[in-house]
Amino acid sequence: MKHALIAGITGIVGGHLAEHLLSAGGWTVSGLSRSPSRLDGVNSLNADLNDPASLKAALADVRPSHVFITTWSRQATEVENIRVNGGMVRNLLQAVEGRGVEHTALVTGTKHYLGPFEAYAKSKPETPFREDQPRLPFDNFYYVQEDEVFAAAKRDGFTWSVHRPHTLIGYAVGNVMNMAATLGVYASICRETGRPFVFPGSPQQWEAAIDVTDGRILAKHLLWAATTPQAKNLAFNVVNGEIFRWNWLWPRLAAYFGIDAAPYPGKAGPLEISMADAGPIWDNIVAKNDLEPNHLSKVASFWHTDADLGREVETFNDMTLSRKLGFLDYQDTVASFTDAFDRLRADRIIPR
């Protein structure tokens, strides 16, 4: 049996990874988070990655063969992002030092190529993004997290992999990066109120080629890299394998909810602004449909979806390195969204 320690078990990536490892067989799964995991079969461990003492206590009897780091903590500035998120990786890997870790996987993202929020997309990098592109001349907590993994691998003798997904699509509640839940909430509010279901992003995103990453294909990729010798000590892009345009996808999302896609107005209309008054509307939808009593801010992260859809540069990723080494999985993008909507409906997070 292999023993996976997943940091961020309650997030999109951590949850899908745990489900995939357990279904694959041959794995014991321990999940680390500040709140308990609800997944059956997971040894739930509660600790704060910023608190070495709580990590030491939670991991006292845990000897993982594989560590998967799938979480981050948003801070007000990139300097703070570096201090906090770099520290989280360092604290975790110090807590399991000398316990026989064979491999550590770090999940980051396409801000590796686009830059941090404070300098987002200012460099206008060439697409498709490729893993051998040099680091940007900006502070970036992803780079610091990578360096912490590299240093610990050299010290403790384990192999590593870095995984750079694009926009994550999957099932999670309370996750700041969950576009599926955010758009599901937005569409549900539009259907309830009669508001037009308008694409809120920039003209460039409406027209440009783009891709996304399903949490399920990322889970497969993480397992593949952790168990494939030729994939060790490499960084990988990981996306669905399908390139699309939002002007093609938007009407298909609308059809799922039984509403019309509004004509694109030619400019961005951020959800943080258009949904500023939506709290009471959402509360009424929750009561009317007997949904789980989640506050709007827990199920929708309008700011993060605005950041993704408001970009003014083309953004998609090359998967050649993974393909050459044998990872050939593909995920239909429409199904990425609709399957996530189905689960959110089944768990009474959004209305049917």
UniProtKB/TrEMBL annotation:
Kindly give the Pfam families that the UniProt entry links to this protein. PRISE
Q: Which domain of life is it from?
A: Bacteria
Gene3D superfamilies associated with the record: NAD(P)-binding Rossmann-like Domain
Q: Which SUPFAM superfamilies match?
A: NAD(P)-binding Rossmann-fold domains (SSF51735)
PRISE-like Rossmann-fold domain: residues covered: 53-351
Question: What protein does this entry describe?
Answer: Nucleoside-diphosphate-sugar epimerase
Q: Which organism is it from?
A: Phyllobacterium trifolii
The lineage, from the top, is: Bacteria, Pseudomonadati, Pseudomonadota, Alphaproteobacteria, Hyphomicrobiales
